[in-house]
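Q: Got a minute? One more chain.
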Amino acid sequence: MSYFGHANNRSEKGLWAAVFNPPLKQPTAEHIVTVLFTSNFVGVVFSRTLHYQFYSWYFPPLPHLLFSTHLPAIVNVALIAIIELIWNIFPPRPWTSLVLQSCHLIILLALLFSTPRPAYYSMMQTPNKTNKAESKQAIKAKKPKQM
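A: Always. Here it is, folded:
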């Protein structure tokens, strides 16, 4: 779990240096949430048995984890849909367990090999200079003239 938690702050000296010589940069709120969600997910992936009660606290963080990887959006949505479908099949069968663990493995590998991306990168775009200039002109045009 430490490897996943420190994936964004890795150094050449390894975990020892990360623990005893922490970086001076403060972690962002997104980084903290991602580390906690990833730790929770790793616990679910490596648990011996999965119960339906796990689903209530394990499923809500999945969209955040998936969209923090570099998998295409359609793959993220497909993984969420497959996991939802598999958890709703009762009684569990060997093939459902295989599909669920395969989805978990895909997500785990995607988290392992993903690089950090800026917060809300896929949801918001930073305006470039031309958009800023155009928006300033539009605001000036909308201001009523004072007499």
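A: DSSP finds eight helices and no strands in the chain.
Q: Perfect, thanks.
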